[in-house]
Design brief:
Blueprint (H helix, E strand, L loop, with lengths): L1 H7 L2 H12 L2 E2 H6 L5 H13 L3 E6 L2 E6 L4 H12 L3 H37 L3 H10 L9
Antiparallel strand pairs: 1-3, 2-3
Helix pairs in contact: 1-4, 6-7
Length: about 140
């Protein structure tokens, strides 16, 4: 995995891998797409070959390169573990859900209390009359209980 990560560390090598993703290319075709020297591209190809990310085959006097994504699986698995939420993240998500649920319940309770008072006024005969009758109702205190 370290060798694969080291091979991916260079932007030129990453670009070569992207080029080989869709098609096989000769060393000359790869080198022609960069402004660096052919020997420099050859060294990059050797690093990728040593890491197992590319394979080359002889086609006459040319070397044809193909991408091999197999060595990326171990690195991909490790990166997945790194980017997966930690155990704490699940606890924080659950806490956030409970906070939202509590707020929603509180707002619903307040709304029902307001609707209940309005409903009591209606049942007692209108706002003015209801206000008079509701004013007669003494609040429940420890003394009256």
């Amino acid at each position: 995995m370290d060798e694969v990560a080291g091979a991916l560390a260079d932007p030129v090598r990453r670009e070569i891998l992207l080029m080989l993703r869709d098609e096989t290319l000769t060393a000359g075709q790869i080198a022609g797409r960069f402004s660096i020297s052919r020997p420099a591209v050859s060294r990059h190809l050797r690093v990728l070959r040593d890491a197992g990310l590319v394979h080359d085959t002889a086609d006459g006097r040319r070397r044809v390169y193909t991408l091999d994504t197999g060595p990326l699986e171990e690195l991909t698995g490790w990166l997945g573990r790194l980017t997966r939420p930690s155990g704490w993240q699940h606890h924080f998500d659950a806490l956030e859900t409970e906070v939202h649920r509590t707020r929603r319940s509180r707002l619903a309770g307040e709304r029902l209390a307001k609707e209940g008072l309005a409903g009591a006024r209606d049942r007692l005969g209108g706002d003015r009359l209801a206000g008079d009758r509701l004013a007669e109702v003494k609040p429940l205190t420890e003394e009256t209980a």
